[in-house]
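note to self: dont lose this again. the chain is below, predicted strucutre after it. 88 aa total, dont forget to put it in the shared folder this time
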Amino acid sequence: MTAQHPVQPLVTDSAGRVMFKPNAIVQFLLNAGPFDENMLSLMPWSNEDRVQLAQLLGMSLGGFAYLPYITDEDFNRAKAQQIEELWK
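---
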């Protein structure tokens, strides 16, 4: 079994939406660099890396579910984390 990327922590924004906690470094690199999300989407990354990038960008959990490379397992791992965080 290969190691999986961790699920990014979940937060609730001021509008009540459940979002992945954005990574400030990743956001800075996208805003400052020559690449944007559209360009990155055309590159041959693994689905596992695409899943993690979506989380690091701070995507909503609802939007995450509709990305074409998200599997049921990816979504269920994130949803399980949301439930676990609610019980803390």
